[in-house]
Amino acid sequence: MATTVLRVRLIGGERMDITYDDPDVVDEEVLVEHVITMLANDAGMLRTRHGDRLVVLYGRGVAAIEVAPRGAVV
User: Fold this and answer.
1) Calpha distance 65→36 (Å, rounded)
2) pLDDT 10s per residue in the chain (74 long)?
């Protein structure tokens, strides 16, 4: 099961960190491509987690996403 942490910037300017996982995917890069494909569509949505809470993220409300940083951003 692949898991990734995404920093999502919403259309209104708010940001939040969410966790997305998929038991059918092993590679994190494939998982990230799936996220991008889903959110690129206005009707796309993802079931994610923010702490212990379930968050449904709709593509039409997302302005940008970042994959969890692996080091300092310069």
Assistant:
1) 8
2) 888 899 999 999 999 999 999 999 998 889 999 999 999 987 899 999 999 999 999 999 999 998 866 654 54
Does the pTM surpass 0.85? The reply is no
Asked if 64 contacts 9 with a C-beta cutoff of 8 angstroms, the reply is: yes
Structural contact between residues 48 and 58, judged by C-beta atoms closer than 8 angstroms: no
> In CATH, what is the architecture of 2-67?
Roll (2.30)
CA 73 to centroid of chain Cα atoms:
19
Place of tokens 């059918």: 24
Q: CA nearest 34: which of 57, 52, 50? A: 57
Domain ranges of the chain: 2-67
Q: Show the tokens assigned to 66.
A: 């970042």
How many other C-beta atoms lie within 10 A of the C-beta of residue 4? Answer: 19
